[in-house]
Each structure stands twice: as C-alpha cells, then as structure tokens.
Input
Amino acid sequence: MASASMKAGQAAHRWPALAEAFAGEGRAWLFVFKTLLALYLAAWLAMWLRLEQPATAMITVGIVMHPHSGMVRAKSFYRAIGTLCGSTFGLALLCVFPQQRVLFLLSMSLWVGLCAGGATLYRNFMAYGFVLAGYTAAIVALPAIGNPLGVFDSALMRVSEVMLGLLVAGVVSDLVFPERLRLVLRQGAREHFAQFIDFVRGSTGGSIPRAEMEQAHLRFVRAAVQLENQRASVIFEDPEIRARSTRMRLLNQHNMAAATSFQSLHHLINRLQREHRDAEAAALIALYRPIGAALTTAPDELHDPAVLAPRLRECAQGLPALEAELRTGLAPGRAQLAFDTGATVLKRFLDELCGYVEVELALRARVQRGAVERVHFRRGNDATGAMVAVLRTFLTMATLSAFWIASGWTFGVSAMLLATVFSGLFAAMPNPLASAFTMLAGYAAGMLAGLVVAYALLPGSDGFVMLIAASLPLLLIGPWLNAHVQYSGIGGGFAIGIVYILALKNPMVYDPTHAFNDAIAQLAGVALAAVSFVFVPRVTGSGWQRRRQFRRLREQVVEAASAPLAGLPWRFESESRDLFHQAIVHTRPGSRASRELLAWALAVHESGRALIELRQQLRAGRFPVEVREAVDRAVQAVAQLYRHPDAVRRQQAEDLARTAIEACAATPALRPRLYQLLGALRDDESPLATWMPAGEPDRAA
Amino acid sequence: MPREIAIQGVLVPGLLPIFLGCLLLMVLVDLLIGRYGLYRYVWHPPLFRLALFACLFGLAGLLLLR
Output
C-alpha cells in the first residue's frame, strides 16, 4: 500500500499532466463503481423480494445517482414525493374513467401538462418532483388500462420498486466513499465571504468605476443564488448543515442587503465626484476610511469573523463622532444634505456588514445556539412560461393519445410513457431541442447495447454472478459518460435506455419481437417529445422571456413602492436577484443585452431599496399630512417611471421628488432618502439617463 | 400490535407505521446531534446514522411485535 502510493507520488512528479488526468478519471471510476454496486444491489433485492419489474428499481437508481451524496438525497426525497402523488392520481383516474378512454387520456394529458408547468416554476429538484408526479401517474395507470382491476397492484408494485431503488441509491452513495457536497458548499461560502470582505476593504479610495461595480455585482449575485441552491441540496446530506440552515439563509440575506447599501453608497460618491463636488465626496470617503481600517488586520486573520466582528462594532461606535466632526467642515444646505445622505447609507451599510460578519461567526461555531429570524429566498417566477409548458406537454400527449386510439397501435403505451417522461424532463432544460436530440442518440445507443446484452450475452448464463458478468461491460458505459460533464446528456439517455430494454426479470423472459416493437415505440415517444419543442418553442432563455423577466425586474420597484411592508426588504433583495440571475445566464457576457440588464439591475436595487426605507420611515414616525402626501406622490411617481420608463415620467418623478424634499424642510429625518432617490433619478450613468434632457444645469436640492 | 393493519380494507404490514415513526424519530435525533455538532466525534457519520436507525427500528419492531 505504502509503496504503491509512493510510486504514484513519483509518477505525479514525472508526468504531472498524466497524474491530473488520473485524478479526474479516478473520481469518474469511483462513481461508476458506486452506481453499478447500487444497480446490482437494487436488482438483486427486487428479485429477492419478488417485485414485478426489477428494471424499475434499476432505472430509479440510474436516474438518481450523482457523484455528490447530497444531490442523491435531495433528488430521492423529491422523487419519493412525486412518485406517491403521481401513483395516487393515476389510481384515482383509472377508478373514475375505467371505460372512457377519451376522457381518461384527456385528463391524463392535462395532469402531465400541469405537472410539467409546475416544474418550470421551481429550480433545484423540486422541479424534478413535479415531473415525477406527472409521469408516475402515467407509469401506474397506462399499463393497467387493458386490465383496470389490476391497477392497484400495479401502483403498489411501482411505488415499492421506486422506493427500493431510492433506498439503495441513498445508502450506497452515503456509505461507500461518500463525496460530500457540504465541503463544496463550505468552500464556496468561505470564498464568497473572503471576496466580499476584500472588495469592501479594497475600495477605501471611495470611488469604484461603474463597470467594475457591475462586474462585482454579477459575481455576488451569482454567488448568492448558487449558495442558496447548494444549501437546498446539502440540508438533505448533512445534519450539521440542516441545523445551520436558517442561519445560512439569514447570512445570504444580510450579504445581499449589505451589497445593495454598498452599491448605493458608491453610486452616491461617484455622482458627487462627477459633479465636481469634491468637498462632500472627500468627507464621505474620510467617513468610510475607518471601515477599511477595521477590516485591515494581520494577514492570517484577514477573513476571520471572530477578529473582524468586534473591530467593526468598535468602528460603528466611533462613527457618529467622526460624522459630526466632518459635517461641521461643510457648507450648510446643499453640501450638508449630500453628506447626510451618504452618512445615512454608510451607517446602514456598516450595520448590515456587522450583522453579516456576526452571522458568519455564529455559523462557524461548533454548537448552534438560540433561534434566529426566519427569512426566505424568494424566487421570481413566470406564470406565462409555465402556461406555455402546460400547453406544449398537453398537446404532445393529446396528439399521441389520438394517434394511439386511431391506429390501434399495440405498443402505444410505451410511446406515451416515454413521451411523458421526456417532455417533462426537457421542459426544465435551458436548451431542450439540442438536449432532446443528444438524449435520443444516447437512448438509441443504450437500447442497442441492451439488445446485445439481452440476446447475445445473457442466454446461457446462469445465476446472479453470471448476470453481472454478462451485463457489466456495457452497463458501465452509462455512468462513465454521466461522470463526464460534456457527455452527461448522452450518458443519461444511455443509462435509462439499456436498463429499460434489458428489462431484467426473474426468471428472465426472452421475446425479441416484443423487445423490438417496444424499442421502436419508445424511440418514437422520445422523438415526439423532442419534436413538440419545435412547434411550441421553448420559453426558457427565449428573447420573449428575457424581455418579460426584464420587465419583471423593473416592476420590482413598483413592488417596493406598493407591496405590504412586512418582510418586504428580504423579499425585494432575493427576488430581484433571482430574476436578474435567471435573465443574465441567457445573455452573452459583454453583449448589449447583458450590459443593459446589469445597468438596470443596479438602478432597480438602488431605487427600490430607497423606496422601501422611505416607506418604513413614513410608517414608523409621526409626520404632518402634507409631508406624507408629498412623499407618497414622489414614491408613486418613481414606481410609475419604472413600470413604463419614458422622458415625461422621469421628469415628473424628479419634480415630485424635489417638491417632497422642499415639503420636508421641517422634518430632516426624511430628507436623506429622498435626496438619494433624486440622485438615483438624475444619475447620468444609469439607464434612466437616456431620458434625461441633455445639458441641463444641476439643480439638485 | 397486530402484524397487519387494515386501512380502508387494504392490508398494510404493521412494520410500516413503525418504520415511518422511526424515520421521524431519526430526523429529531439528527436535528439534536447536528445542533450540538456531536457527529464530529464519530468516524463515519453516515454509517453511524444508518446503524443508529437500524438499532431504533429493530428495537421498536421487536418490542411492538413481541
């Protein structure tokens, strides 16, 4: 053992490229080994338990296996729920329409369509659960259509087989050389924390160019969404993460809030510098400097929250004194108002940064104490996109049903089944047409391999060991392809196709005619699912959906101006980021659409946040009626501007914001936020600048 | 505890509710252990969890079906 590892070490020195390749291949083969172990274990158990179709348990294993055990658990969890819902519905449907094939097939198509639509509303494996609920109903009810009395047994068998497959896959992936997603999550979270702290520290100079800010925003949004996605899977894998789950959500929210305040502050300083109001800008930068100093520690403690948290708190305590001192150095009126605005944003930012670092500190503690506020990462979903998915799947299924009824095709069931499975699975993919055809190719290859195994290698073999020997060489191709990202589309099809056509049973049934007919019908089903995307095109990533998401992103400001205030800040931060993230992944980096989207995202964050805080202040304090009305009008005008941006509305919003500032002369508490709003409306680098009259003299405040 | 329970005329093995109850119990135990970080004292946490579950289920099954 020791000499072997020494040899490997020497080899690594001699041929680093080779060692690297072997390291990657090693992980792939480990995955292949785990998958095959789970596959054969599931098959053996299913045969031992005398289940009807061990193949279903094997397919389940093939589908849920993933290199990371957290993913397997998450997928299994939703697959179990989907299977239970689907089989219950299939059972109910067959009980209601046992002799009405048209009504039965129509309702079945509608159910599958609705499930496919529901799947587009969720990310992660929740979507997968919906797809499963759709096609398990078909799997349970369709084969029993000729024999309605047997549907209960069929449902029971299907559920048992799927559950067995899930159990085996979960246990094997968790026990045998588990690869932990937790480590990926922890590393990602720490990296993100370090990057954010570095970014905040690095900008002590005060001003950051807009382009750099946009890139940083893009990076942080990506990290926020990715951390949330991983968290949703890891809670299934690791009890320690589950205990930290609420706190991790809170951490993400604090981070997003701090990032928004940070951007607002820098937009403000940048604007002041562009307008050559250097005294105010310099004062704000001086006020910011202590934060940078608090974050600058010994090199090995730079990202240690235990060191940073008390330093930041100390810095927050010293800030009001510094603020008062800097304020006296400025001319009263306009300059002081600008400074007050900046100081308000800065204090809020510091507060959020403290919260962020403290939650991170609590997360790194070994024992989790106390309860924390429950916050949710709200997703921005598109109901219209879901409706299109419902329509497409319904049409596919209805067409196939009609064809089945009209032609009296014996193997129509198989075609229906496969079309159900794949139209559901493809609906959630970014590029369904291409992935459908790779999947089809993989599926055909898998079936061919399955036929070779079933009719050339298996006959004559005796016992389970011989079965393994005969099927292993071709069966391992699927998981191997799956382990390599670039072939995973083909691999997925191959793994399902081979197990499907192999249809292992005890005792094995050999019926070539049946197998070939079945294979042709299944291929037709997959092909039809692919073709349906040509007629009712994909929604995800289309220009139409991007424009809609774009509008939804802008309407976040309307939401900020009108939605109930309870929990609104969290909702606003997460939903706007999720929408932005969904839209940006479908644009080419650096393209015009991508830049436009980024610019709008920054504007939406700044204005929306200012509106929410203004409304919170209005609600908390006692103000005269005319002040309230003036501020309300300004808030609504900004919301209108973001709903339908044009020159008239922009001018109107600006005028109303000015009126509100004048009306608030007696209530200085409201003025900084209004001033911030006005600044955002007048920002000549924001997308609103398109509608700004050129060369207008600055009359701010 | 009967070996089989009739739910709406469907016979369900008596072990099934016990299994589900043990799963629930396991989730609670997991939550507790996770909160206090006690899994760090275990060599192979998943194996430990599986074994713990097997013990719980076996014990409950044997006690109730005695």
In short: The interface with chain A takes residues 30-31, 33-37, 39-40, 44-47, 49-50 of chain B (CB under 8 Å). The mean pLDDT of chain B is 84. The radius of gyration of chain B is 15 Å.
